[in-house]
């Protein structure tokens, strides 16, 4: 378990000081994929760099199983930066072996693990190609392999699915999921909210250097449910606007969305049935995009 508690970070001095992280707290649980989402400037990359020890923080703490994080643990983290971080003119397999050796693997173990990873990521046929000869999507998968090649104790990935087509997303996810299933905590940031919603076990939503919402998708849906309902009636539903304790948020003929408590919503359903029939009725399921917009507003 990696725990971040009350993390603060500022850049600059005096009047030009920018307070980037403002008491950030969240957990990265073992064996789970944690999605780290927020707009540009929310503090995601700064937080990741502090986790890795690339930046110092001004206040707060980061612990691993209750013990302050140290250089030894950080040396075992697999990191994928958003920027391209590999050597463009070096063959893919050779540089993965080199990176694994830097982390303490023997040449034989490094080559065996790198080869297996490239096969799992559908890059086996390109292992001897220079990185610059690969498409951007394949370069992205090579960077994922570089983060995994030393059998990391944790994974921190900045936009790992950027530029990947749907098949490549599925292939990459399967490899990351296998890693998480061994008990490794995984944190990844992404602007692709639909991908995050489909892939992650838990979410941490940032805005202006603060955590605005955190938890599983179901937790966030429950917290931001808003008691909104959707009715598709056989006849015009304009009458719903006159019902006590109901606020209509959308109306188009027999299609209406409204907020109300459950008892009132059931009364609306009965009335609609009596007025001519109901095609569909139920609570509105929020999307991650809607929750993100509401949480960061």
Briefly, what is this?
This protein has 297 residues and is of the alpha/beta class. The chain has helices at 44-52, 71-75, 92-102, 107-120, 136-148, 166-181, 193-199, 217-223, 262-274, 288-296; strands at 2-11, 18-28, 33-37, 59-64, 67-68, 77-80, 154-158, 186-189, 202-207, 210-216, 228-233, 247-252, 255-259, 278-283. Helices cover 35% and strands 28% of the residues.
Describe the structure.
The structure is a single chain. This protein has 297 residues and is of the alpha/beta class. The chain has two domains: 221 residues, 3-Layer(aba) Sandwich (Rossmann fold), CATH 3.40.50; 73 residues, Alpha-Beta Plaits. The chain contains ten helices and 14 strands. The strands form three sheets. The protein has a six-stranded mixed β-sheet with strand order 6-7-8-3-9-10, sandwiched between helices. Strands 2-1-4-5 form a four-stranded antiparallel β-sheet, with helices on one face. Strands 12-13-11-14 form a four-stranded antiparallel β-sheet, with helices on one face. Helix 3 packs across helix 4. The longest helix is centred in the middle third of the chain and has 16 residues. The protein is elongated, with a radius of gyration of 24 Å. The relative contact order is 0.14.
């Amino acid at each position: 378990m990696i725990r971040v508690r009350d993390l603060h970070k500022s850049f600059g001095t005096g009047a030009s000081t920018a307070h980037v992280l403002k008491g950030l707290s969240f957990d990265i649980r073992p064996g789970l994929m944690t999605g780290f989402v927020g707009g540009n400037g929310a503090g995601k990359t700064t937080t990741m760099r502090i986790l890795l020890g690339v930046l110092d923080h001004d206040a707060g703490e980061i612990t691993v199983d209750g013990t302050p994080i140290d250089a030894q643990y950080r040396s075992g983290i697999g990191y994928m930066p958003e920027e391209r971080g590999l050597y463009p003119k070096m063959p893919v397999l050779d540089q993965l072996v080199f990176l694994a050796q830097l982390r303490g693997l023997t040449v034989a173990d490094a080559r065996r693990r790198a080869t297996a990873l490239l096969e799992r990521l559908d890059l086996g046929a390109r292992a001897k190609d220079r990185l610059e000869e690969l498409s951007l999507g394949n370069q992205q998968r090579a960077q994922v392999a570089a983060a995994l090649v030393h059998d990391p104790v944790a994974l921190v990935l900045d936009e790992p699915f950027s530029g990947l087509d749907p098949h490549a997303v599925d292939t990459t996810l399967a490899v990351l999921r296998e890693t998480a299933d061994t008990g490794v905590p995984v944190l990844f940031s992404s602007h692709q909210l639909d991908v995050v919603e489909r892939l992650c076990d838990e979410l941490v939503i940032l805005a202006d250097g603060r955590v605005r919402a955190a938890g599983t998708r179901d937790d966030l849906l429950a917290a931001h449910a808003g008691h909104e309902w959707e009715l598709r009636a056989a006849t015009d539903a304009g009458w719903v606007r006159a019902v006590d304790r109901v606020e209509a948020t959308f109306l188009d003929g027999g299609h209406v969305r409204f907020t109300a408590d459950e008892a009132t919503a059931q009364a609306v359903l009965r009335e609609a049935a009596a007025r001519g029939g109901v095609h569909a009725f139920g609570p509105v399921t929020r999307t991650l995009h809607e929750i993100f917009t509401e949480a960061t507003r």
